[in-house]
């Protein structure tokens, strides 16, 4: 059988399947399903992720169902937590393991959109014969990582189909829709985690994470999304002992931080409806300092 060459980025997954996992691509594969108690335990632990993802999953399914896609949410270990599918696809979903409690980690299932997305920590698309296992040659999957309020990988949003249809004409649009939906879920989680803080952005979103930062009344960083942590070189988890954000930006000379400073000031001004004094308090700097920065950055008010 002729196999497709994996798209850029999937070759690493094939190497892992061959070398690290010692998986035989022709071997029969059966879905591993968690027991009901195991699934309840994991669902309780990830209830906030499920709660915020479900409305977005329903909306996403309404957009992709005509192409034969099922929408799934998986945790950081590749366990499916929830599913949105059409009635006509229920039998196929059971056959292929597109259901809650199914384990789609790369080590067991080989190259697949959920497991490989978790390994690569980036959006991935796996088309038919690009799967490692030959039995998955009719499957198509597109997945995007989901991050929690502390910037940690929380799971995967996935659309998958067993129909064997050619989706290449729509692949770009489908991927962008997936990434946008993942950002919306991340932002909901972030805003709920920091309900009393000022949320600002450090610029345009990249891939599946939006660069958001939560600031207290003194302008100190209380939290940051995955994208913000990458841009600012902040670690995962709790952010402690950081100076006020504007002071931190002042200490950096790189152009990227100048751009970040512009976005921070604009976000603060937008949040306070253009009130300079209120924006300065939000940023933890004086009114005169903010005026000086606005002039130095040539910001139009």
Automatic annotation (TrEMBL):
InterPro entries: GAF, GAF-like_dom_sf, Homeodomain-like_sf, HTH_Fis, LysR_HTH_N. It holds the Pfam family HTH_8. PROSITE patterns: HTH_LYSR (PS50931). Residues 268-301 form the HTH lysR-type domain. This is Transcriptional regulator.
